[in-house]
Structure formats: structure tokens, C-alpha cells
Design brief:
Elements lengths: L14 E12 L2 E12 L3 E5 L6 H9 L6 E6 L2 E2 L5 H7 L1 E3 L12 H9 L6 H15 L14 H13 L5 E5 L7 H16 L3 E5 L3 H7 L2 E6 L2 E6 L1 H4 L3 H6 L9
Parallel strand pairs: 3-8, 3-9, 6-7, 7-8
Antiparallel strand pairs: 1-2, 1-4, 4-5, 9-10
Bound molecules: adenosine-5'-triphosphate (ATP).
The site of adenosine-5'-triphosphate (ATP) has 11 residues, from strand 2 and helix 1.
Amino acid sequence: MTNMDHQSPERDGETLLTVEGVGKRFSGLQALQDVDMTVNSGEIIGLIGPNGAGKTTLFNCISGAFPPTSGTVTLEGNVISGLPAHKVARAGLARTFQITRPLEELTVVENAMVGAHIHTRRRQEAREIALENLEFVGLSDRAEEEAGELTVGAQKRLELARAISTRPKILLLDEIMAGLTPQESNQMLGLFRQLRERGTSLLIIEHDMKAIMNISDYVKVLDQGQGIAFGKPNEVVEDDRVIEAYIGGFDVDA
Ligand SMILES: Nc1ncnc2c1ncn2[C@@H]1O[C@H](COP(=O)(O)OP(=O)(O)OP(=O)(O)O)[C@@H](O)[C@H]1O
């Protein structure tokens, strides 16, 4: 397979997100080194790699949790690396977190409103946006319950509703399917497809290989902080460097 770059004529859509030469150093540890990748409009890209490969660190550099040590990230041509997270969100990039913790003392709808408030100070307008997105994730009948009462699966859908209430052009999902039942995972994959149909791009970290290979248009593979492959799911699983990084290979039929 080819280590296809972002100019590949096979890819549809306009370039939305560009990661160029991104590095991140934590005192003695080079967690990311010279990572390049792009996400086009309407694409679902899977970001995979063994434990400690740097996936969450890359999400943090893209979403403004902290700045990269080197390199740049642009969204629609505007530099977003180095901006604080709320400005990155306002520019059109939302993320979910590996460990979802809703504000338990708030209701379900109030949690989703936190996302909507990045665009509006008006409570009623934020509530309408939040309710619309709770309906989308199948939680509208629980809108007035305390968020702490929700099951893990429902908390994940609330996290998705909060993130999409910022009306992102691109959504970064960090292991949002972890801890879900097979039925809940399928439901989540259905939501991802619907988001793509609405034109939202998705960049997804997920350990469930079968799910990631099934849903992604392209897959980016990191190993020890570096990009080692980029391609279609069926190409990536046959790449020697990728197989080596995942000693024992993939089990996508599990
Ligand atoms: N804030 C931090 N300070 C110091 N080191 C960190 C920090 N965050 C991550 N690291 C280190 O950077 C490396 C990459 O970690 P990261 O969490 O990005 O990997 P990952 O691919 O997301 O792993 P996993 O699949 O286990 O979640 C690891 O060695 C990790 O210990």
C-alpha cells in the first residue's frame, strides 16, 4: 500500500483539517514527532496505534488542550495550534474525552447546553440546540433527569450531544465506544454515519478494530509518536510496518 498523502486524487471533499510536522515533547519524552495528516470535509478517519503511540496527545495538540512543541494545525486554512480550547471550538472543532464525566448535578439537557453556549449566551436558544441534539442521540425523553443517573452508554451519547451542540465542522472522538454493549456500539456507529451524511467530518480513536475498520474511509496509524501509515482500512491492515507495530496482527473478524 502507499503511504498516501493528503493530495491523493482518490479522496473526495475539500481539505478541512491539516496537521503538519506536529511534535510534542514532555520533558524527557518525545510523545509525537513530525506527524502529518489531513481530514477532508465529509470524511471519517480512524486514528489507530498501540498503547502509548501518541493518539490522545495528537488530539490534545489539535483541540487546544496544549500547544504542540513544533509544527502547525490549521482548520480551513486558519492556524488553530496554540489557540486555547474554547477558540478552537468556536472555529468549528469539537472533541469528546476518553473518560466522560458529565456535570452530575446538572440535568441532561443542561449538560448538552454547555456545548451550545459557545455560540450563544441566550439560554432559550442554547436549550433548543441542546434538545435537538438529545433527540438525535436518542436521549430527549431523559432531558430533565440528573446526568449522574445515566448509564455509561447513555453518558457517552450525552457526551456526543454536548460536542455536536457546538455545531462542529469536525468532531474528534476519543474512545467513545469503550464500555458500550455491542448493541450500543452499533447504535453509535449509526450516529457517526448520520453525522457524516450531514457533512460533519469525524476523526476517531477507537480500540475496537472491527468497528474502526468498518466505519473509517481512511485510517492513520501512529507508532511511538510517528505516523507509520495512512490508507484505506483494507490497505492499512496489510501494511508490514503496521503489522509489526501490532505484534500478532489484527483481529478484525472477532
Ligand atoms: N501530560 C503528559 N505528560 C507526560 N507524558 C505524557 C502526557 N500525556 C501523555 N504522555 C506520554 O506520551 C505518550 C503517548 O501517550 P498517549 O496517551 O498520547 O498515547 P495513546 O496512543 O493515546 O495511548 P492509549 O491507546 O494507551 O490511550 C505516552 O508515553 C504517555 O505516557
